[in-house]
């Protein structure tokens, strides 16, 4: 019997100091600009970044208008180093909900960044969770580079 918990990681290197990368992950105004895959917008967002704080945001498919409310609870907040939170329905209980761990590693004026999602099996080309996060991280990098996202 395979009891392994499904999970995956995506690693990126951003041309920005980790303090700026951290801020772009924790500031609502910045998150609203990039926290979504391609073809989707983020319409509402509230982040209470502290242990036990909750967050929620709603993404809307630009073509169909379908809405995707998303949220969770912050489990660990170590400014500039690590952010751990559940990821699912906005009011889902902590137990049994997938968990995302973000790791911010300084590399001179750059930041090595790792997103690890525990609770979903994702692979490149799945057209679902892995690809959605991969596209969101592409938007994130473009945002950090100062590009205005449509």
TrEMBL record:
Segments forming domain Activator of Hsp90 ATPase homologue 1/2-like C-terminal: 15-144
Top-level taxon of the source organism: Bacteria
InterPro entries tied to this protein: ASHA1/2-like_C, START-like_dom_sf
Similarity section: Belongs to the AHA1 family.
Protein name in the entry: SRPBCC domain-containing protein
